[in-house]
């Protein structure tokens, strides 16, 4: 085993260690993670908000025991593989050992550490972006057809993981058209590769068609409720913050792509990043959607800097470029990760506010960053729901109905009673078991100051009561209530079927 391989293994091990120690034990899993984990029990070629790959990984996690260790392992793995692909890109670009260490350091001590703590499609999305760019560099270097087919496979897998990778293609194609490599589009092998990619994503496209393209509804809803609050200037500011420790390396890459002779054949990558960012800005995308853009540019920048810092006084700058990411990681460690208690953040909000971390999707500032608040209160909710569920004599005739997917997913993940909670929200609308004739209802409802749930729903049952609520004031679900209704006077199933149909009609529209 040579020196380079040992160093790479060291970076990979450090990556995994960091991913496991950057989250305080007092935080639960994040809201979205519960939905993705529940998809393991409802395998399909698509879902209302995401393509199918996440469900496949969730199924593997379920087989392995569904422990938090494995939930955190896979995003950490995808982050480590991203580092490996950048390492291989630097080798492909003829970078020396310094370039490899610089590139790996920049990737390791970046926003990817935060992204890779969450079990969401985003970590694999970044890996697929990076992998696609790597494969295209391979093709531009060798012009071997196998790399075009590999690119099609990588893109298709990325598409089946997260539709966000379409932005990569939309930004890359005009850059290709403006470059000397545009002649590539006249060759048959390109279209054979495109056909291969289309065949691979076809099952998901057919699923979308069969279900009236719910992705359109999802994007419309996302635009109206979240993206409308996105500020384009904040988007650009966050792009800098994501890789602040390697910002100079990325700038060096952009310069090199224009003026560094060994990179002449890769010049289209300069236009590609410009076009892709403009598209993201036009659509008012969330800032983290663009994270997958940058790892390949770190590879370009590391190779260029390693070359120009070889001799003379410049060689003394080598340690500086490696130290900078480490120095920026220190404040990142203290702010970006959920390793401080909620009480600490509430008492020391200044730095969080300066970075815009207290601003939620509703466009307002809150006590905690939204992701942190979304990691609190779930165990409490599941524990209290379990307690209530156990008191009902015939649990088989009891349905647990939640207001949102986070509540349903968290109850299903933590429940010791085998509860299968559902919701009219997100994919749960398709997961009701209506073969059971329900007589009892446990209703998990978001807190409203003047809620009339007890009176309105209670009228259809013989008994009704408020059985508890989330008491963690820092949780986004603070004061979410647990209502219990028993011995229905009406046909609950019929009411549920009507609600499901109404929700599905809304999605179709």
What report would you give on this structure?
The protein contains 23 helices and five strands. The chain has 509 residues and is mostly helical. Strand 1, helix 21 and strand 2 (422-423) form a beta-alpha-beta unit. The radius of gyration is 25 Å and the shape is globular. It starts with a helix and ends with a helix.
Give the secondary structure arrangement, pairings included.
Elements (H helix, E strand, L loop, with lengths): L2 H19 L9 H8 L14 H11 L4 H25 L4 H12 L3 H4 L5 H22 L2 H17 L4 H13 L9 H23 L3 H12 L6 H11 L4 H13 L8 H15 L12 H14 L9 H18 L6 H6 L2 H5 L15 H4 L4 H14 L6 E5 L2 H10 L7 E2 L16 E6 L7 H6 L2 E9 L11 E8 L3 H17 L1
Parallel strand pairs: 1-2, 1-3
Antiparallel strand pairs: 3-5, 4-5
Keywords, please?
509 residues, five-stranded mixed beta sheet, 23 helices, 5 strands
State the helical fraction: 55-70%
Which class best fits the helix and strand makeup?
Answer: mainly alpha
Number of alpha- plus pi-helical segments: 23
Give the CA-based shape. Answer: globular
Strand order of the largest sheet: 2-1-3-5-4
Task: Give the overall average pLDDT.
Answer: 92
Number of strands: 5
CA-CA gap between termini: 59 Å
Please trace the helix and strand order, writing H or E for each element. Answer: HHHHHHHHHHHHHHHHHHHHEHEEHEEH
* Uncertain parts: none
Report the portion of residues in β strands: 5-15%
What is the makeup of the main sheet?
A: 5 strands, mixed
Global Rg: 25 Å
Describe what is shown at a glance:
The protein is mainly alpha-helical and 509 residues long. The protein is 59% helix and 6% strand.
